[in-house]
Write a structure and sequence with these properties.
Layout (H helix, E strand, L loop, with lengths): L1 E3 L2 E5 L26 E6 L4 H15 L3 E8 L12 H19 L3 E7 L8 H14 L3 E5 L8 E4 L2 H17 L8 H4 L9 E5 L6 E4 L4 H9 L10 H15 L8 E8 L6
Parallel strand pairs: 3-4, 3-6, 4-5, 6-8
Antiparallel strand pairs: 1-2, 2-5, 8-10, 9-10
The protein binds zinc ion.
Length: 271
């Protein structure tokens, strides 16, 4: 574990990550993202990434990518249990997130530690995310949509998800790119970095569908680590839930289970 300015990251490479047998095989399909090898997932809460993109993350990790999570909040409000304190819940959710990270094979989990349910897209948060982008230099950054979707399908949206998405996108462009923005980061040895693509989760009009069929078991196992958030469900029930969501995402596509994103390519010439 290393500590940086009150934030901390944990190296998970040394934990000898076990995976479900048969899921190590790298699929041979041709993808336009094959030349990439590093991804970062920026989310508000422990479990957001497992719900939204853990099949894709499992696939990338299985193919040898370095994937880093950046968790903006401590998850300290997500319970109906009156016996649990916010501090205890934050501790529990941190352990749950690290267990999920082990299942998936992440390189690192960075906990920014902001208070759950109070997240705002401040310049401070943008700078913190910029710091991690410049440190880990991802090719693809995955985040939640900053737009409130009022179609009723997913409720009204969580303000932390919107804030994390807004701060992450602003960190990608232009902040991580420009050396004159937050010049103190240069003093930390963190050079500017251009993210090649952003993949937005929870977007109402996704256009990037990832076949996660071979990784659905790993994905469900990762989500099942978030015991405090799945209402007493076991891995089997979580797996059935996950399959149903991913099956719906795959409707009309040449795949059984899919995760969906809005893909934004940043490093191609303007039309
Ligand atoms: Zn959340």
């Amino acid at each position: 574990m290393m500590t940086t300015r009150g934030k901390f990251t944990e190296n998970l490479q040394s934990l000898n990550v076990p995976r479900t047998p048969g899921e190590r095989e790298v699929t041979q399909e041709k993808e336009h993202v094959r030349e990439y090898s590093r991804a970062m997932v920026v989310v508000a809460h422990p479990d957001d990434a497992e719900f939204g993109c853990s099949g894709t993350v499992a696939k990338w990790c299985g193919e040898g990518w370095e994937v880093v999570y950046v968790l903006c909040t401590d998850g300290s409000k997500g319970t109906g249990d009156r016996q649990l304190t916010a501090r205890d819940l934050a501790r529990i959710r941190r352990q749950e997130q690290l267990a999920a990270a082990e299942v998936l094979g992440l390189k690192e989990v960075v906990f920014l530690g902001h208070e759950d349910a109070m997240l705002e897209p401040t310049l401070e948060l943008r700078k913190e995310i910029t710091r991690e982008i410049r440190r880990y230099r991802p090719d693809i950054l995955v985040c939640t949509t900053p737009q409130r979707n009022l179609d009723g399908g997913w409720g009204v949206g969580h303000p932390d998800h919107l804030a994390a998405g807004e701060a992450a996108l602003s960190a990608v462009f232009p902040t991580a790119r420009d050396h004159l923005t937050f010049p103190e980061l240069l003093g930390e040895g963190l050079e500017p970095h251009k993210v090649s693509e952003v993949w937005v989760m929870m977007h109402p009009e996704p256009d990037q569908f990832v076949d996660v069929t071979d990784y659905i078991c790993t994905s469900a196992k990762a989500l099942a680590q978030h015991t405090s958030q799945i209402g007493g469900k076991g891995e089997k029930e979580v797996g059935e839930m996950m399959r149903e969501w991913r099956r719906r995402r795959a409707e009309g596509k040449p795949m059984e289970y899919a995760e969906a994103f809005k893909r934004i390519i940043l490093d191609r010439p303007r039309p």
